[in-house]
Write a structure and sequence with these properties.
The protein has six helices and no strands.
């Protein structure tokens, strides 16, 4: 019980510290840098099993992803109801974002190859261009993603 509280407190501190989902995503143990990951640091500081800490981080990431997807569906549904998007437009946005998710699969951010990142960026650029051509507000393309699934546009 004490371990669970410590892990929860440590992860809450990460969220409150302004790192949010980005901080959690960078907490993976499979880091490409030589620095010690956040998971390693938490496990070491609180004398916890690193695999258990990683499991909590992974669960949290999945929960946040599910929340973002629910927010996205709700925002698109509301836009259709309010006449700001047609159902076909909302379906197109959903389809492209699902294609991007399928490309990424279960790969964590630091596990994604440059080729995969390029493919995701290309899909996002195509979606942004389509939205621009159809006078669709970018808020519907970037729903619940604070900067977009494809990251910043270069």
């Amino acid at each position: 019980m004490k371990r669970s509280l410590l892990v929860g407190a440590a992860l809450a501190t990460v969220g409150v510290g302004g790192l949010g989902t980005v901080g959690i995503a960078s907490a993976d143990t499979s880091s490409t840098s030589d620095s010690t990951s956040l998971v390693d640091k938490i496990a070491s500081k609180f004398n916890l099993n690193k695999d258990e800490v990683q499991a909590v981080v992974d669960e949290d990431r999945e929960a946040h992803q599910a929340e973002r997807e629910a927010e996205q569906k709700e925002k698109l549904a509301t836009a259709v109801t309010d006449g700001k998007l047609t159902q076909a437009q909302a379906d197109h946005i959903t389809q492209v974002l699902e294609e991007i998710d399928a490309l990424r699969g279960d790969a964590k951010p630091d596990e994604q190859s440059d080729d995969l990142r390029d493919q995701v960026k290309d899909k996002m650029d195509e979606l942004r261009d389509w939205a621009d051509e159809n006078d669709i507000d970018m808020q519907y393309v970037m729903v619940g993603h604070g900067g977009g699934r494809g990251g910043p546009r270069e």
